[in-house]
Structure formats: structure tokens, C-alpha cells
Amino acid sequence: MAVKNAMTSEFLHSAYGGESMAHMRYLTWATMAEKEGFPNIAKLFIAIAYAEQVHANNHFNVIAGETQGATVTAGAEFGTGKTVDNLQGAIDGELHEVEQMYPVYLNTAQFQEEKGAERSFHYALEAEKIHADLFKKAQDCAREGKDIELTNVYICPICGHTILDEAPDKCPVCGVKKEMYKEF
Amino acid sequence: MAVKNAMTSEFLHSAYGGESMAHMRYLTWATMAEKEGFPNIAKLFIAIAYAEQVHANNHFNVIAGETQGATVTAGAEFGTGKTVDNLQGAIDGELHEVEQMYPVYLNTAQFQEEKGAERSFHYALEAEKIHADLFKKAQDCAREGKDIELTNVYICPICGHTILDEAPDKCPVCGVKKEMYKEF
Ligand SMILES: [Fe+2]
Ligand SMILES: [Fe+2]
Ligand SMILES: [Fe+2]
Ligand SMILES: [Fe+2]
Ligand SMILES: [Fe+2]
Ligand SMILES: [Fe+2]
Fold first, then answer.
1. Cross-chain CB nearest to A77 (options B17, B53, B67)
2. Which InterPro entries does the entry link to (chains A, B) (predicted)?
């Protein structure tokens, strides 16, 4: 196995489960936002769903190793309310990751000297901070019955860094070039 | 909550977690199959990832209810070997769902008279049987260093029914019309 320590491995598995479910519910909530007349909030959900896919894929590749099954325990948000409620679920999930989950996972990876996990958790933590802010902005708009104003959303395919309207020359988190960003 | 019974609710949450992780790993394994020179096996992974998204989305919508967090425990497969190994992970996961998980979940939903969950578990169970067979066929090819032969893969967007080369006039599982099938 690419990871030597059981605790870091367990946290990678849990983070993989959490990111996979976040990816999935953002796609579901995007469909609901579209139907409710918020195409830009739908676009934001779809773009951030891709960022969560980047995180899940990174964790999966750090776990690496032989083909084997595992039981995964992870947090997720549920609910099929209005978009303003779904955005609250998104904010709650992101804030849990920013304030509790990823700081502890990152601290553990550093403590256990697991370099791959450290990078994967760091990438996710930095993106989730931005996701929490963007979902709060979207919710402020939805509360007033308005869509969020944006042209495109750009996602770094290496670390999930997320930015509105224009990609930076270099990703501030992982350093990848502007041309690599995926546009939504 | 749309589901009255705690056990059926727990099984829906677990199935949602399992399907979300299956969706995610099939996308990862698709990228690996593409790199290994198996574009049709990659296409099969991508199409079946969409079927798992349909299942996850169905379970999520049966859970429905208010915005709230939950801790989810679910099975998943891991591994970053060659495509022939990744397909073994896919087969193991699908067979667990076909032989153990979904029959018990479906039986419980019937026992607890949870109609929405019964339909959602039934749809998934029927699709997973086909997935297990298709992944076995793909693995037989990969073992000989060959790609699987197929033109397109068709997925029913309502139940996840999966079929190669041509969609049926009506979905044999949920009855949806041919035109609704998503082509990969
Ligand atoms: Fe994430
Ligand atoms: Fe996020
Ligand atoms: Fe980046
Ligand atoms: Fe499924
Ligand atoms: Fe399946
Ligand atoms: Fe169907």
C-alpha cells in the first residue's frame, strides 16, 4: 500500500467517501437549481462537483495499492428542499471540512509523515474554503430570489482550486498553468 | 421524512454512499483504461458510472426531507492496478450488490412497506446484474490484451438499465421510451 499508517489510510478512505457523496449531491442540487430558475447557481454546483471529483480522485490515487474492498464511513448532507435550503446543506458540509475534518486529517498526515496524503488533504482544504464562501454568496442571492452573477467558473484539475470569471495565470495552490483550468 | 422506517432509511443512505463511490471509481478507472489503450472499456466504465449516478440520485430523492447531515457507512472497492485488476474490483463490487446488498435492502423495503425505497432498490439490483456481466466480458478481453467490442453503450436515465449497441424500444425494467436512453 502506498500509505504506511492505518490512521492516515482510514482518513483518506473517509475523505474519499465524503468527496464522492459531495460530488453526487451537488449534481443533484444543480438539477434542482436549474428547475427553480437559477442557471448560474446550477453552473456553480456543477463546477464545484468537478472540484470534489478532483479531490476524490486524488485521495483514491494516494490510497492506491492492490484491488480490495473496504468499508468506508463518511459524513454527507441530505435534503431535497428549495435551492436556498440545499445551499445551506452545501455550506454546512464545506464548513465541517474547513473547520474540523481537513485540518485534523492534514495534521495527522504531517504527524505520520505521509507526504502524499498531506498534499491531497492540503489541496482539498484550500478549495473547500473557497467553496464555503461561494455557496454563501449564492445563498445570499437565492434568499432574494435572484441568481448569482457570474460568467464562467474555473476549476484546477490538479487541486480543485475554484475561481469565478477568469482563471489565474498560475494556480495559487498547486502552481498549474492557466491553460489547464477546466471551464464551466 | 419521506421514509418512515429507520432501517430502510439507513439502507438508503448506505446505498447512496456505495453508488456515489462506485460512480467516482469507475470514472477514475476509465481514465486508466484509456491510458492503457482500451478506449471501449473506458467508455463502458464512463457509461456505467452514469448508471450509478442514476441509482445514487434515486436513493437521494427517496431519502428526501429537510436539509440535514448524516454519517454514512458503505462498501467500496479500491485499487490502482492494471485495467484487468480494476475490472476485478468492479466485478467484486457489483456481485456484492447483486448477491447480498440489494436483495436484503429490497426485502427490507418490502417488509417495511416502503414503496419508494422498494422501487429504487429494485431498479439498482436489475442494473447491477447487467453491470457484473459486462465487466466480466470486458475482463475476458483485457486478459488477452484486447479491448471489448462495442459501438455505443445506452443507459436508462430513470433506472440505470444498461445495454450495448442499441437501446430497446422500451426499458425492460422501468418502461421508459427508447428516445430517453442516454448514449455513450
Ligand atoms: Fe472537496
Ligand atoms: Fe468543496
Ligand atoms: Fe491547482
Ligand atoms: Fe448502482
Ligand atoms: Fe453497477
Ligand atoms: Fe429504465
1. B67
2. Ferritin-like, Ferritin-like_diiron, Ferritin-like_SF, Rbr2/Nigerythrin, Rr_diiron-bd_dom, Rubredoxin-like_dom, RUBY_RBDX
Cell match 485540518: residue?
A103
DSSP per-residue letters across B135-163: HHHHHHHHHTT-PPP-S-EEE-TTT--EE
**Ligand 6 centre and the CA of B12: distance in Å?**
19
| Distance from Cα B125 to the centre of ligand 4, integer Å | 7
Residue B69 · residue A22 · CB < 8 Å = no
Asked if B101 and B19 touch (Cβ cutoff 8 Å), the reply is no
Residues of B in contact with A63 (CB under 8 A): 78, 80
Inform me whether the pLDDT recorded for A113 exceeds 70. yes
> Which of B52, B72, B139 has the most A C-beta neighbours within 10 Å, making it the best mutation to test the interface with A?
B72
Q: Where does B6-65+74-148 sit in CATH, by number?
A: 1.20.1260.10
Residue A145 has pLDDT above 70, yes or no: yes
- The architecture (CATH level 2) of A6-64+76-149 comes to Up-down Bundle (1.20)
